[in-house]
Amino acid sequence: MRSIFMRYPNGKAKAVTFSYDDGVPQDKRLAELFDKYGMKGTFNFNCEYVRKENFSKEQIKQYFLSKGHEIAVHGANHRANGNLRPIEGIRDVLDCRLELEAKCDCIIRGMAYPDSGIIQMGNFGNYEQIKNYLIELDIAYSRTLGGDNNSFMLP
């Protein structure tokens, strides 16, 4: 039987990821530290904060995109998808994605679930519904806040 070994770029067997939420002003300093040490991160921007001008379009390009960091969706209004009716969840994700794409001049395909994410489901849905509308919105991946993160499997 033939074995297949998954590898990261340059044949690396292990990787570490950095993912930070909300798009707060302190993310600028964090991005600068990552740059200093040759690391990259994903910054999940909550558009509610972006609207407050924590980062202008130019600053997003200067501190994040031009340095190879990723910008991802974290909700237009930072509302937990698990507690939203599907139409509300769709709107929150799509509005955030469109706002970020306008500010970043690139396609945004990643996401981190805002608030309590999908850990708790309200009366409005289930994980399969959320997964289905994220696929339809062309979100390639979404990170949660807990529970299911105790794994080292590839996404």
Please sum up the structure shown.
The protein has helices at 26-36, 47-51, 57-63, 86-104, 127-136; strands spanning 19-22, 42-45, 70-73, 110-112, 141-143.
Characteristics of this structure?
single chain; TIM Barrel; 34% helix; alpha/beta; 155 residues; globular; two-stranded parallel sheet
Can you give a write-up of this model?
With 155 residues, this protein is α/β, with parallel strands linked by helices. It has one domain: TIM Barrel (Alpha-Beta Barrel). It is 34% helix and 12% strand. It is built from 5 helices and 5 strands, in the order βαβααβαβαβ. The strands form 2 sheets. The chain has a 3-stranded parallel sheet. It has a two-stranded parallel sheet with strand order 4-5. β1 (19-22), α1 (26-36) and β2 (42-45) form a beta-alpha-beta unit. α4 packs parallel to α5.
CATH class: Alpha Beta
In which range does the helix fraction lie? 25-40%
Distance between the termini: 25 Å
| Rg, nearest Å | 16 Å
Element layout with pairings:
Elements: E1 19-22, H1 26-36, E2 42-45, H2 47-51, H3 57-63, E3 70-73, H4 86-104, E4 110-112, H5 127-136, E5 141-143
Parallel strand pairs: 1-2, 2-3, 4-5
Helix pairs in contact: 4-5
